Amino acid sequence: MIDESEFIARLKSPLTKEAAFRELLKLYKERLYWHIRKIVLNHDDADDVLQNTFIKVYRSIDKFKGDSKLFSWIYRIATNESITLINKNAKRQQITNEEYQNKAINSLTADIYFEGDDIQLKLQKAIATLPQKQQIVFNMRYFEDLKYKDMAEILETSEGALKASYHIAAKKIEAFLTSD
């Protein structure tokens, strides 16, 4: 386990920034990829967002104040970058975010990187019916098993609001999955 304040100091120091950043990539790359992928759904988009996230982290590390954990700060950037990509793509295609998400879900089976079966595809379709914030909360809790405390830090909201949001999302998904 690394000492976070020491690690942050290494990330901020011109002498150790490159090596510390490579370490940061190793620590978070895969976990962040899957977090982003659950939001944007498409492999290529997830790769782009992941790259943008790390570029932003690299360029902004000096502005990191330490008010939250480094992990939470990076996840917040990744989440915001994911939402920005969805909004930008939906706007470019002149459709709503919901319509964009539905198109992404429908193209999942054609995605060579999607390894899910029919049940996983149906779950993804159910998640796509949720409002964006509920999608993110559900994914973070269900797939990533994040604690509400960490999610509250990442999403900058209260634990109570997140618990309510997750509960509502889970009920909607259950209703969707049992509607056939």
From TrEMBL:
Keywords: DNA-binding, Sigma factor, Transcription, Transcription regulation. PANTHER family: RNA POLYMERASE ECF-TYPE SIGMA FACTO (PTHR43133), RNA POLYMERASE SIGMA FACTOR (PTHR43133:SF51). Belongs to the sigma-70 factor family. ECF subfamily. InterPro entries: RNA_pol_sigma-70-like, RNA_pol_sigma-70_dom, RNA_pol_sigma70_ECF_CS, RNA_pol_sigma70_r2, RNA_pol_sigma70_r4_t2, RNA_pol_sigma_r2, RNA_pol_sigma_r3/r4-like, WH-like_DNA-bd_sf. This is RNA polymerase sigma factor. It comes from Winogradskyella litoriviva. SUPFAM superfamilies: Sigma2 domain of RNA polymerase sigma factors (SSF88946), Sigma3 and sigma4 domains of RNA polymerase sigma factors (SSF88659). Signal peptide: none annotated. Residues 25-91 form the RNA polymerase sigma-70 region domain. Residues 121-172 form the RNA polymerase sigma factor 70 region 4 type domain. It comes from the Bacteria. Gene3D superfamilies: 1.10.1740.10, Winged helix-like DNA-binding domain superfamily/Winged helix DNA-binding domain.
